[in-house]
Every structure is written in structure tokens, then in C-alpha cells.
């Protein structure tokens, strides 16, 4: 019931393509270059998406359930229509999503390295704390050292678990959302006159 209600409400916010039931993420542009960062001097196939567009796509992706299909729909003036440029822009948008997935993969690898290092450090600290012999002459100093090693060991282990379960799961979720965009259709529609 709740799932149906949420889906019903989303259909008021987003139009859907009646052919494939995909949610339409619609954007109105004046020209193709509006899609890209104006500060980016790279060739078209390497251009970065405009920050406002990236934010808009990220927000829309989290508003729509991950299991739903989406379609990117760009509206431009009829006079801007250029089939070659349209194909190049589609490829560039897809490249942006691939690039973001690549950086997420890099961050995931970094997280795995950190997790392994923190686990090793945590275990070493805990082993050292257990192996320190009690000495009556230095009991306060030894006790402080042991407590410090115990606390440090558990902090390292907690941080490892935090990165593994929380940090990495966020990145994996983000990667799935970019993968959905990567597999979505990109459509350009042209309007005759300004409304």
C-alpha cells in the first residue's frame, strides 16, 4: 500500500514515458553547451557536466527508487538541432557517468586499504596490551600504557568497521545510481518557440 502511494505521488512530480514506464528527468536548455561546466576547456568528449546539472541529477536519483527506470530528457530550441552534436553530447554525458563510477571505485579501493590497515593496527594494539607483563614497580605507568593500547586498539577496529559498513555502503549506493543513469536513455526534444 505504502509503495503504491509513494509511486503514485512521484508520478505527480515526474512525468513518465508511456512506452517504457521510465521516469523522465526533464531539463530545459538554451543550447547544448549549457550541459557542461563553462570553466572546463577540455574537448567535448572530456567535458565535465555543469555543477548545477550534477546536483540536479543527484537529487533526482535519490528521489526516485533505485529499481525504477529513468530517462534523461533535454528540451532545446528547434534552431539548435544538430544530430551530430546531439550524438556527441550523449556520449559525453555517458562518459561523465563512467568517470564518476571510476572515481567511486578508486574511493572503494582506498576504503578497503584503510579498513585492512585499521584492523591490523587494532589487533596489534590489543595483542601488545595483553602481552605487557604486570610490573609492581611501574604499575601506574604500565596500567596507563595498557589502557592506552586497549583504547587505541578498539578505536582502530571501530574505525575499520565504520568505513567498511557505512562509508563503503554509501559509495556503493552512489555507484548504483550512476550505473542506472549510464543505462538510461538520453532524449533530446526540440521546441518551436519559447513559452
What does this protein structure show overall?
With 195 residues, the protein is mainly alpha-helical. It has one domain. Helices cover 61% and strands 11% of the residues. The chain contains 4 helices and 3 strands, in the order H-E-H-E-H-H-E. It has a 3-stranded parallel beta sheet, with helices on one face. Strand 1, helix 2 and strand 2 form a beta-alpha-beta unit. Helix 3 runs antiparallel to helix 4. The longest helix is centred in the middle third of the chain and has 49 residues. The N terminus is likely disordered. Keywords: Membrane, Transmembrane, Transmembrane helix.
Give me some keywords for this one.
mainly alpha, three-stranded parallel sheet, 195 residues, 11% strand, disordered N terminus
Quick overview:
The chain is mainly α. The protein has helices at residues 2-13, 51-63, 83-131, 139-182; strands at 23-28, 70-77, 185-191.
Quaternary structure classification: single chain
Shape: elongated
Cα separation of the termini? 38 Å
State the share of residues found in helices, binned by percent: 55-70%
Strand order of the largest sheet: 1-2-3
Mean pLDDT: 84
Describe the main β-sheet briefly.
3 strands, parallel
What's the helix-strand series?
A: HEHEHHE
Tally of alpha and pi helices: 4
Keywords: Membrane, Transmembrane, Transmembrane helix
Transmembrane segments: 115-132, 138-167
Amino acid at each position: 500500500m505504502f509503495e503504491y502511494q509513494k509511486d503514485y505521488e512521484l508520478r505527480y512530480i515526474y512525468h513518465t514515458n508511456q512506452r517504457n514506464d521510465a521516469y523522465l528527468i526533464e531539463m530545459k536548455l538554451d543550447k547544448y553547451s549549457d550541459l557542461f561546466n563553462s570553466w572546463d576547456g577540455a574537448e567535448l568528449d572530456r567535458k565535465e557536466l555543469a555543477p548545477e546539472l550534477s546536483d540536479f541529477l543527484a537529487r533526482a536519483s535519490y528521489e526516485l527508487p533505485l529499481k525504477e527506470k529513468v530517462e534523461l530528457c533535454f528540451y532545446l530550441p528547434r534552431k539548435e538541432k544538430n544530430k551530430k552534436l546531439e550524438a556527441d553530447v550523449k556520449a559525453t554525458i555517458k562518459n561523465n557517468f563512467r568517470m564518476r563510477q571510476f572515481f567511486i571505485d578508486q574511493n572503494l579501493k582506498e576504503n578497503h586499504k584503510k579498513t585492512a590497515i585499521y584492523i591490523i593496527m587494532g589487533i596489534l594494539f590489543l595483542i601488545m596490551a595483553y602481552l605487557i607483563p604486570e610490573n609492581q614497580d611501574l604499575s601506574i605507568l604500565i596500567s596507563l600504557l595498557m589502557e592506552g593500547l586497549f583504547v587505541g586498539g578498539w578505536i582502530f577496529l571501530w574505525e575499520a568497521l565504520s568505513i567498511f559498513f557505512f562509508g563503503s555502503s554509501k559509495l556503493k549506493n552512489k555507484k548504483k545510481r550512476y550505473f542506472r543513469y549510464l543505462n538510461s536513455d538520453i532524449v533530446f526534444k526540440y521546441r518551436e518557440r519559447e513559452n
